[in-house]
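BUG: 3D viewer hangs when loading the predicted structure for this chain

Environment: internal workstation, default settings.
Expected: structure renders.
Actual: progress bar stalls at 90%.

Input used:
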Amino acid sequence: MLSPLAAHLLLLRLPDTGTASYWQLMEVFASPQELLNLPARSLAPYLKPVAIEALADYQANPHSHLARLLATDLAYLDAQPSLHCLLFDDPRYPRLLREIPKPPPLLFVRGNPDCLSLPQLAIVGSRSPSGGGNENAERFAAYLAGCGLAITSGLALGIDAAAHRGALSAGGITIAVMGTGIDRIYPSRHHQLAQAIVDGGGALVSEFPLGTSSHASHFPQRNRIISGLSGGTLVVEAAVQSGSLITASYALQHNREVFAIPGSIHNPLARGCHQLIRQGATLVETAQDIVDQLSGLISYKRQELSEASQRDDFFQDDTSTTTKATPPAAKPPVAPPSLSAQEQQLLQALGYDPLPLDLLAERIGQEVGALSAALIGLEIKGLVQQVGASYQRC
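Structure tokens produced before the viewer hung:
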């Protein structure tokens, strides 16, 4: 008879049998083992034809494709001491995630599975944020990590990566929920960041079978886990059609807090945040606003983890300084080919809110005196305008 883990792995490997199908099946059968011990052809009322064919082949042929996949999965897991599989009844399975509709029946966790029980805040936003948006994500994450919140995000480009890095910079815990198999880092450029997350005491998390590649349909599924793990979700920058709003929508469905940073009315990447605020999300200007709102969750989790004799060093307070949020600036459109490299860099760094010249120089790592000619050129082209001693996009 298959072990509980092997039975879960096999069931979730069946074609067209995902999380939703799993929970429908568990309304009929006591366990995956019970289901898989039945003749495949007898499961016609419960499984799709393609799944029945695959299971019938597995039951008849010890060298079937499904049998080879299962053997490969078990061998891989056995060879990876830092990789954990949490079944739904595992005491380490995060309590908040249990509460969402149709939670993942199996979580692959690389790193520290205990960190999933920490109080968490999700930080999400655009994959192509402005300079100000990146700074806000990193600064908010660093401050909140210092206050005892684990920072949860999706390992994507842009705001996700900035949030992970901000938490790491403060010596905090960060958790990356993936839209791929746990053995596939996406985007590939984030291998080093993923390893830093694990080395820092955090974790990579996925519900997808080993070897699963990136696909657009996976990211809404991933987003529901990001929300489900977290006591609240902060949206830093997001267009109206952004996938970040899917995460916020799940947070509302899960009765979790939703926070949004406002921005310029001219900033396309602020419109998603403004929409959330109109719908009832909490407008935040500082990271302390979030700490105040989630103080009950932080205190409860500290007590819960202390009673369970978990690591005290997850909760090092450093709330002496309140980080003020700079209103996010929009990602500019693709620069025209006629722009010089320096002009393109300036255009990328500027948003729709005035930015002092010295801060602009600091942001792009150049001396103030070296920017004047390029800024004048951008003014002549109608792309930026001077406002006092500051500059902004037109």
